[in-house]
Amino acid sequence: MQPSLLSPSRRLRRTPFSEGVEAAGVKAYTIYNHMLLPTIFRSVQEDYHHLKTAVQVWDVACERQVEIRGPDAGRLVQMLTPRDLRKMTPGQCYYVPMVDETGGMLNDPVAVKLAEDRYWISIADSDLLLWIKGIVWGMRLDVMVEEPDVSPLAVQGPRADDLMAAVFGDAIRDVRFFRFGWFEFQGAPMLIARSGYSRQGGFEIYVEGTHLGMPLWNVLMEAGRGMDVHAGCPNLIERIEGGLLSYGNDMTRENTPHEAGLGKFCNTMTAIGCVGRDALLRVAKEGPIRQIRALAIDGAAVPPCLEAWTVTDDKGRRVGQVTSAAWSPDHRTNVAIAMIRMTHWDAGTTVLVHAPDGPREALVRESFFS
Amino acid sequence: MQPSLLSPSRRLRRTPFSEGVEAAGVKAYTIYNHMLLPTIFRSVQEDYHHLKTAVQVWDVACERQVEIRGPDAGRLVQMLTPRDLRKMTPGQCYYVPMVDETGGMLNDPVAVKLAEDRYWISIADSDLLLWIKGIVWGMRLDVMVEEPDVSPLAVQGPRADDLMAAVFGDAIRDVRFFRFGWFEFQGAPMLIARSGYSRQGGFEIYVEGTHLGMPLWNVLMEAGRGMDVHAGCPNLIERIEGGLLSYGNDMTRENTPHEAGLGKFCNTMTAIGCVGRDALLRVAKEGPIRQIRALAIDGAAVPPCLEAWTVTDDKGRRVGQVTSAAWSPDHRTNVAIAMIRMTHWDAGTTVLVHAPDGPREALVRESFFS
After folding, report:
1. Nearest neighbour of B100 by CB, restricted to A101, A128, A133
2. CATH code at A129?
3. Which of A278, B39, B141, B225 has its Cβ near the most Cβ atoms within 10 Å?
């Protein structure tokens, strides 16, 4: 499949930052939560090198929020995830796998606790709002569930702290990983968390109010002039190197969190009342029979991974699938995310990846690349 | 915004027909239910003329199905829509607006009744599966809710009956509008309904089993050689002319079915137990204060409608918005779908549409164009 054109329409929502993204010369998009998400500015490789050395501003408005507020909010959020939330306090962000009654993953959002009775769930690519509203209606819970006018803008890269300090002051440097603080921009309070979909460090600014989007974008671009700031976006190569999973690519409703390597975020014994607990108790005890692994795939640059590529042993028996892959300039190999059966998931195992241009040898690794 | 490239990935799912679509020279896509939906083959205008004169085969696999099966299936489906389903029998398809507890539209699917305890809900672009699963979990209903391996393939156009008869036999001609029958293809039963997202007539084949996708595609293409068959897709111009609404474009969760002109599918008095009944009872009684209208917009061809265009009166007061618009070669005007306040929704009213290239006069029409 050749790269194709995307037909724009209102249904593929623009964001508060789209004007800035276009002015910065965006070259391609994906669609995420019915919204435009840039994927390429200069080139995937050029964006990759720049992300690892400088600082980028990302339009990740497509990380839509589900706001949950009201007397039953805490009970509901605990119902939604097998992670034990009892110690979560306002000011914290928790990565929370969410599953259906069979333990199949529905989303892997970040929960942001604003107050004891108020959360934002910052979602991956599925309409989690509908799942939550369905449960609330079915159980007649006392909560309000809405998609607020909140659009995250990420600042990522080794110079992220410097750029953010230039705009929000040095106090931003004290925000710890997966914590947030409130900062002011043009008189409006902004929730800023140390988080983001890269391994290069940085922040996510939860911009509340569409009208503040472009003013903030412009101020960041202006303040970053001397820091080689550029518009960027989640980078395919960097996220695979770092083992950052993508819901819909690397795991789907077919998979449990344990298969996705997220067992450490599941406290099935203590997360009483969560959906999927019955199913996951067994998985937690016995362990999964397949799991996410990092692969290094031999040969020249692989083509884009548009469908799961079958992984076999040397006798042609299916032992898994590759779901994300790209050539890594820094590691001089193809880096990949795969779901591998336990018979072949040990580090050092050689497997065959059946890419569209033919089979290639690949090595199962102990861990991801960065 | 210039047409942009779409970055492909596994998350933007390919369909059982993608190979045929590519071989037919697809030029652009949109994303619909996390899946590729072709939007242009030769050009939007060429596809439009062809659709109105010949016959096309459409990959609408993105109309994903939600299968509901089990003892509580009938009760659940009635709960999901304000349309009274008591007279629905197996073999029928019903267009069923679905709303949340506030009466806001969540989807406008077609419900296909396979048996008293088994339905397929053929969905528009939102993860309705999650809404339904949430309700089922919250209420502990006795039903199975899944996305089956079913991918609709549409055959649309004035010669659709001839092409379908050539493949499935003349009995297909007897299938009435929004009814379905079972036909055989290569030994497999196929549910075929007289329905589809155009005003040119035709069928939707619910292809059960990915492996049957390309064989059926090829047989249809071969059988249609003498009928000028071509790969096609829902056509922007034709659907606006015909007043076929697009969820996410023309109505969203902001709108009630009554605003969307779908009040005739809401039997709020008798659809006892449906979600949103409390909210819709009032709307049904008083009527909406804004509603979908057809507009004819003056001037040369409008640019693509990427965001709602404000509609005002001649004093600049906001009276609505345009959400879909295109130049119609047959009607020699710009055809549009708009949501208009009751003060200005009477046929013959002149309003101003604020398109990105400037304001234009537009006429509110009595009905759509075809």
Report:
1. A133
2. 3.30.70.1400
3. B39
